[in-house]
User: Fold this.
Amino acid sequence: MAVSTSAPPREQPDRAFRAPVGNTIREKFTQLVLLLGTLVALAVLAILLIDIAFDGVGGLSLNFLSNYTSRFPEMTGIRAGITGTLSLMLLTALMTFPLGVGAALYLEEFAERNRWTRLLETNINNLAGVPSIVYGLLGLSVFVFFLGFGRSLITGALTLTALILPVVIVASREALRAVPREIRDGGLALGATPLQVAFRQTVPAAIPSIMTGMILSLSRAIGETAPILVAGAVFSRRADNEPWNLSESYTAIPIQIFDFVKRPQEEFQVGVASAAIIVLMTVLLFMNSAAIIIRNRYARKI
Amino acid sequence: MDQRTSSDQRAAFSPVRLDTGRPETHRPSASSTDGRSTDTAASRPSAPPKRSTDDVVFDVDDVSVHYGSAPALVNVSLTIQRRKITAFIGPSGCGKSTFIRCFNRTNDLIPNARVQGRIHYHNQDLYAKDVDPVEVRRRIGMVFQKPNPFPKSIYDNLTFGPKVNRMKVDYDEVVETSLRRAALWDEVKGKLKQNAYSLSGGQQQRLCIARALTVDPEVILMDEPCSALDPIATAHIEDLMRELERDYTIIIVTHNMQQAARVSDRTAFFTAEVESENDDRRFGRLVEIDDTSKIFSNPSDRRTEDYISGRFG
Assistant:
């Protein structure tokens, strides 16, 4: 019997490229759901911001920025909070950067892979998830009492450093790991020592990503209230905080917001607190922009 | 050499320097320190005629490499001759890349890699206790499979080696000399401050060769230097190797048999063997090493002939 060699009949050409009806609908529907999710998140944020803006803009003035706190809502200000927050951030950044990058460099480039370093890594990852109030208690018991720093600016900065250090280490390790192996090989093949390769090639190549990790961590630290509250921040201070006055008492913007909200007068609870929140967010915005500019400039150079 | 500040670790590896046969060593000793920098300038005096062919740079004696407990390469013995291009060919998994990494102790950087046997570099045991692998790597340069310029300017790529080695040289001069030697100067002389990543793949690889030359090695190891390049860029690199052969000893690993036939003076053929019948982990073994013309026309070993003629691999 002869085997038929003719091809099976083809589909009609005009139908060949049409998507099945169900596909189009499913696709559109999924896109809609995703869009809705985005909108909900944005809407909540927008409502929050608008609400705060309405309540707080009235309270914003130069006096509000330059006055210390007062019993009277119209005369109060957050000067001590602003200087305190700036001092805290500066000190925290100065301590976190070398410690975090150093630890990451050790773990990523030099430490042997053994049970001990794996244990260390697991612990660091876990520390990144510890609630911030626990760091406050650590600050209270270790820095305030054990080391005898008291309820001072350095205690607050050390507490915040301990809080964000694990995150900075993890982010810096990721950044170092993303630097291609070939760059290290190239350096070593020229007779550079592992240390020279690490500091002259690997770290510079990783700096932009490390900076991103630093920015995100500091942004978390700037809004933290609980840990520094426990570690001895004061509600009101009738003097500026300066980063070099390490042993002075200190306050910060989130601490002052907390203070305003729990006062009995409604003017404090709504107007003054909202105004302080606007200031806090502005400071945050400025810090982030500055850091991003630094990062981009560095990234362009290499 | 003279331009380098000496320290203990370098001294430990210095006796070899006495007879490297590089042009500098033939110069009157009066020109030692300052003469060095002019020597590397644009025109190194055309290399002296090749000396007797039995000048041995590397003497490899019964070398085996293991990764953990798995053998990668076993019982290799051969010699590498001065100012020749020696090619390592063979099928995948035959250990030729592993082997080339033994010559500058790059295997030291891989955890659980273990090198047994002896490799002598001008009669000095490379794996002796007092030999500093960092110094070995400076004297025996390496070019990798994938071009790996640093994410910096072309200029900075070329000054990194002299800087970390504290060579007292004029950086501008080193940059120009090495780029000229790597046949890249004309293409990049106007854009030395540009990022090296802006170059094409072939240019990047020539930059990497130039970079290897900046620290004045005697030997250049090339681990499949053309595998990521197109035929034109490959031809450039091959011409360059021919050029460099006058002053440097070159070892090249290549997957490309035609390349080995085109550029090398001597060829070593490796094969991959299966460990046992019920364990198909492979390890490499040297089949033979001989003049390239002989390997490709009349090899002594049947396996080489089968590989060359395309019967396997």
